[in-house]
């Protein structure tokens, strides 16, 4: 709760003003029944018309003031609640930017989306109700009870019975509903995951005619959420009947006992009239409090989930005195062990001990799940090793400033991502200060210029969200050009030429040799033709180094490489290359 409220920041004044205006609004409303009693006793029953006018004018003035204070309180409540939700979204988003891949894996993408949308909306509404109704209701309850005590201390004792009854009922509802709402928000994550997965892969769904299967899967997630929501609402439905029992009990007791007191001369008609007003105000405030309890029950689960993200510390942090310069592109793996879940005993990489010279071109090849992507993720420190060390430029990557390291280790990931905007804007993700000429030169090296020049607006052509209006090979070449603009000391291509033909692949490799000879190049590929011209080739098998040598030596000595070569080159060549 403290972590969430800390995000109020500049909106604290709005919160305090709302509480102040709400208090003044309640004071005005509480005094109106008291003045009404004076009109009855000193004006109507005493046949004093001037007293009726005087006290009537006073009621009108107090009602007008109550209206103004209420409007000001509502305005400040809206500002404070909206400001809190805006600050929460900004803080969560900023914290997510610091997360490592392992932090994001912990929450899942749909889980983070739910926290930034549904959970924050719940907190926003709950906060608005808290600073308005949760302030107004207790004040109304306390002031009403004080006025009741002033009018008739004996009758006021009956209210305590109703209050005690309601506190017990509301307490039970709150405890049980909190447990249910925790499950509800987990089901929201599952629902979001189903929607996100379906929309992201909608082309695949339609290509395999799996719409019915996806509908069934979504219906299952929706049904789970429905069942839990109904369960929660059934429990909350006890709130209103309990409230009405308390209301009718109080009205019955006050009517019966009040009549006796008037007959005995212990109470006036005006007092009884105002007492009924205070009873209704008191019980209505209790009813509003019960609504607040429901909202808080829902929001507490959201607050807990939001706080988890705000309090999450990134697994990867910079050292106290980080190294701010990468000397060269040499890479050393010193007996490295790595697992995605530390301490699980299931290593993605085991005892990796290889040394790559600066400026060397290294191919990486191996079967699915052999650890190729895991290996290169350690070079730019997307994850930390469990044992051993990864060094770039002779320095352990954990000693670098993360931003400095990643600016010098450029990665074209297996999954290529483009953003909404022009081609130029996408290219400048690699270097925001890059000139148009530098962008054109990078595209030439990545063989992207040939299709960009054919586009109607050239480099100003708009890229749709996710690069939907370019092909897979075009997307890969744009991502390679984007990486080249960083002018890195290490360039990693993680299977990022798989969608281009072998002729274009060869041109890209030639451009690398000519344009960036001093850059260390690591090329992960599924086909031999992409790596056979590398200085050395690393063969991985089940997360271990099976061999690390030249193409010719591997053909002579390594069974795995021989098998891959035979299946691709002697069995008909690559998909677009004749045997």
What is the count of helical runs? Answer: 19
Assign a percent range to the helix content: 55-70%
Q: Strand percentage, roughly?
A: 5-15%
Q: How is the quaternary structure best described?
A: single chain
Structural class: alpha/beta
In short:
By secondary structure, the protein is α/β, with parallel strands linked by helices. The chain has helices spanning 2-5, 12-44, 49-98, 101-107, 109-151, 153-200, 202-207, 211-236, 239-264, 269-311, 372-379, 402-408, 423-427, 436-445, 449-452, 472-484, 502-515, 551-557, 559-570, and strands at 331-338, 349-356, 361-366, 387-392, 395-396, 409-412, 421-422, 462-463, 490-494, 520-524, 536-541, 544-549.
Task: Map the helices and strands.
Elements (H helix, E strand, L loop, with lengths): L1 H4 L6 H33 L4 H50 L2 H7 L1 H43 L1 H48 L1 H6 L3 H26 L2 H26 L4 H43 L19 E8 L10 E8 L4 E6 L5 H8 L7 E6 L2 E2 L5 H7 E4 L8 E2 H5 L8 H10 L3 H4 L9 E2 L8 H13 L5 E5 L7 H14 L4 E5 L11 E6 L2 E6 L1 H7 L1 H12 L9
Parallel strand pairs: 3-10, 3-11, 6-9, 9-10
Antiparallel strand pairs: 1-2, 1-4, 4-5, 7-8, 11-12
Write up this protein.
This protein is α/β, with parallel strands linked by helices. The protein has 19 helices and 12 strands. Helix 6 (153-200) packs antiparallel against helix 9, helix 6 runs parallel beside helix 10 and helix 9 (239-264) packs antiparallel against helix 10 (269-311). It is elongated. The model is unreliable at 574-579 (pLDDT under 50).
